[in-house]
Write a structure and sequence with these properties.
The structure holds 2 protein chains of 2 kinds. By secondary structure, chain A is an alpha/beta fold. Chain A is built from 13 helices and 15 strands. By secondary structure, chain B is mostly helical. The chains are: A alpha/beta, B mainly alpha.
Chain lengths: 382, 341
């Protein structure tokens, strides 16, 4: 009994020694927390996959990456982030895929002074934080582009249908904030949930309101449900979809119902079609080629691209920070934060990031393209 | 006109909820298990059908083989005190050979591009035995436990099956092709053929259940077990057999519901739970005992849901699940308290 106890103690001592030893090697350590299970799994899995494409070395320093699953749960995300900072002594945190979890991670990042990349949109009070940088396009940026396109298409009245959650509210909020500028009037505001078996009721009401166009504020294959139902009920007008819907899975589900639809998207979905002068083409093409080589043709997503873009930024920022401090120290984290904030512009697959002290969103119109669907493929709107 | 659309839509979803509610009542009355994973069979059925549409071998077939293997190991463990060759052979056939054969059939037939009806039958064939294995693995060892323990086991099975669904089907939704593409019109109202299939299947299953319970010996044994478990045992009803039958039937009904609903909406690995929950509301209204009341309540829920989604789409779920509260109040006032424990 006593023997077993002392052996156990020895084992624990050795293990904890190695745990203490690892930061001393001065590798650059990155903690990634994403929702590879739970309700955000469709977003989290491509993020997790994309981490596998990261290089093993940046700026001559070995890269140590720890990936944890938070199931989209803010409390697990907080635990993961604390583990990263306290036990793994990470230099950067990346995550999470869902907004509530990202907010939780941002809290830990701000408290411990760790640079943080959020892979989901976050509310303005979080994106103003000193340590958090946002990778996805802001809803206002996307909405500006879509609304301008609607105006150009001669749309005056809009029927809105979106998720009955914060994602749906987000886009309705954009209409309230900016719709008037573009001469758009919302004539119906309907909500549904992703697992609903039918949206017939909502669609009937939309069609009865006779809008010029319908705007769908939903994401992934969930956005296909009203799209199909609208076409089944004979709505022939234009439908506008947010970048959340731009996945090949959406096209697979929606099929022919996706005709006459305009999608806003990040440029990574169509790097092949971009002109050579585009700053997002090179990075996008490299990422998409590597990803589809590993996970199969037609598997690219915008979500996974955020992970690639975090690395695109770090590749430039880490060497700058290395001149000032050693990895694993608070000085390095501060230097890295400054490098991300001032070292731009960083051309990446989803846009050109140019963070500033008062702007941690960092993207402009180069981060949005408009697409249509044709023959189960996305095509650039000329 | 709009009302007619809404009624048609509501009856369609209501029919699916009715099937689920019936399965829940069936399982509860025979085994006292509140069968939360019922919805998972629906999701598995729909996703299996969608993958068969793509000409792929559905992962549920390999899952079935795994379930069978686990059940076989449990049987072996049960036999460690010594057993006869017959019991061993029976277990071998049921747990290893049967899923193996189904897997073989699925892998031969899947790439052939079968007609939709054959694919639907194949789906039901793959999903139905899962009911037996779930019973064997999770519930049979607990057959005499309290309702609460069985409920906790149900939650566990539900979470496990949902997790397996994520692993095997992926996180994105799938949509199957309809059994028949045609559209009929009754007056001004277009009725898709798929809806007719749903009505037909629901009515057929209700009639089949009625005949089964009223006319067959096994059905009567199930009813006897439902009325009084101990009494049924005393007069020679094998209560384990009735449990097996109830779960297998429930899985079959779940698979049929999945095949019916797969083509009309996008199904995710976690959709089943919400659909099952609405069936559960119907089953509660039926007091977890009455088949006809459950079926009628399910149609009512479908209608209310359909109208709620038209008039107040943001509050649809609140309205549907809020329904259960007055029903529970009424049930607890009108019934004397007769919990078994």
């Amino acid at each position: 009994m006593k023997d077993r106890f002392s052996r156990g103690m020895a084992a624990i001592a050795v293990l904890s020694l190695s745990a203490f030893a690892s930061p001393a090697l001065a590798d650059v350590t990155i903690g990634v927390t994403v929702s590879s299970t739970g309700p955000g799994a469709a977003l989290g899995i491509p993020l997790k996959n994309s981490v596998e494409l990261w290089p093993t070395e940046v700026g001559g320093e070995k890269l140590k990456v720890i990936v944890l699953d938070d199931a989209g749960d803010p409390s697990i995300a907080t635990t993961n982030a604390r583990r990263f900072v306290n036990d793994d002594k990470v230099d950067v945190i990346v995550g999470s895929a869902l907004t509530p979890a990202s907010i939780a991670v941002a809290g830990v990042a701000a408290e411990t002074g760790t640079p943080h990349f959020a892979c989901s949109p976050v509310p303005p009070n979080i994106s103003k934080g000193k340590w958090t940088f946002i990778l996805p396009q802001d809803a206002a940026l996307i909405a500006n582009n879509l609304f301008a396109k609607m105006k150009a298409d001669g749309v005056k009245t809009v029927g809105y249908i979106g998720f009955s959650d914060s994602y749906g509210d987000l886009w309705m909020g954009q209409f309230k904030a900016m719709g008037e500028q573009y001469g758009l009037k919302v004539v119906a505001d309907e909500r549904y949930a992703r697992p609903d078996t039918s949206v017939s009721g909502q669609v009937l009401k939309l069609v009865a309101a006779r809008p010029d166009a319908v705007f769908i504020g939903a994401s992934g294959t969930g956005a296909a449900l009203p799209q199909i139902a609208l076409r089944e009920r004979g709505f022939t007008g234009k439908i506008y979809q947010t970048h959340g819907a731009v996945t090949f899975d959406f096209l697979r589900i929606a099929g022919k119902a996706a005709d006459n639809t305009v999608f806003a998207s990040g440029p990574v979905m169509v790097p092949e079609a971009q002109p050579d002068s585009s700053e997002t083409k090179q990075e996008g093409l490299a990422y998409v080629t590597a990803y589809e080589k590993k996970f199969g043709a037609g598997t690219r997503t915008q979500f996974g691209a955020h992970i690639n873009d975090a690395m695109a930024i770090l590749k430039k920022a880490i060497p700058i920070a290395l001149q000032k401090a050693k990895p694993g120290t608070p000085e390095f984290k501060a230097a890295l934060r400054d490098a991300i904030e001032t070292g731009g512009p960083f051309p990446a697959s989803q846009g050109v990031f140019e963070y500033k002290a008062d702007d941690h969103l960092g993207l402009d119109n180069r981060a949005v393209v408009l697409l249509t669907a044709k023959d189960d493929k996305f095509e650039l709107v000329k | 006109m709009i009302a007619a659309f809404l009624i048609q839509d509501g009856v369609t979803s209501g029919a699916i909820y009715a099937l689920l509610g019936l399965a829940l009542v069936l399982v509860f009355s025979v085994t006292r298990v509140i069968f939360i994973p019922q919805g998972e069979f629906v999701a598995y059925g729909a996703l299996t059908l969608a993958l068969l549409d793509d000409g792929r071998i559905p992962p549920t077939a390999s899952l079935l083989v795994c379930f069978g293997a686990i059940a076989f190991l449990l049987d072996l463990w049960g036999m460690r005190q010594g057993t006869d060759a017959r019991g061993f052979l029976r277990s071998l056939t049921l747990n290893l050979i049967l899923p193996g054969v189904i897997y073989g059939i699925a892998s031969v037939l899947a790439p052939l591009g079968l007609p939709s009806f054959a694919k639907a039958l194949l789906t039901i064939l793959i999903i139905t035995p899962m009911g037996y294995y779930i019973y064997r693995i999770a519930y049979r060892p607990l057959a005499d436990a309290s309702v609460l323990v069985l409920l906790i086991a149900s939650v566990g099975v539900h979470l496990a099956m949902m997790g397996l669904g994520l692993v095997f089907f992926g996180a994105e939704g799938l949509r199957a092709r309809p059994l028949a593409d045609a559209n009929y019109s009754v007056g001004l109202l277009p009725v898709p053929a798929q809806s007719l299939w749903i009505y037909g299947a629901t009515i057929a299953i209700i009639i089949a259940l009625y005949v089964f319970f009223e006319r067959t010996l096994l059905g009567k044994a199930l009813r006897a077990t439902a009325v009084n478990r101990l009494g049924a045992r005393l007069v020679g009803v094998r209560t384990q057999l009735t449990g097996v039958t109830a779960f297998t039937l429930a899985a079959a009904i779940g698979a049929v519901s999945g095949v019916l609903i797969g083509p009309i909406t996008t199904i995710y690995y976690d959709t089943g739970f919400l659909i099952g929950l609405k069936g559960f509301v119907a089953a509660i209204i039926g007091g977890l005992a009455s088949f006809p009341v459950t079926a009628i309540a399910a149609i009512g829920i479908g209608l209310i849901e359909s109208f709620a989604s038209f008039f107040a789409s943001s509050y649809k779920e609140v309205i549907v699940f809020g329904l259960i509260i007055p029903v529970l109040v009424w049930l607890s006032l009108s019934h004397a308290f007769h919990e078994e424990e």
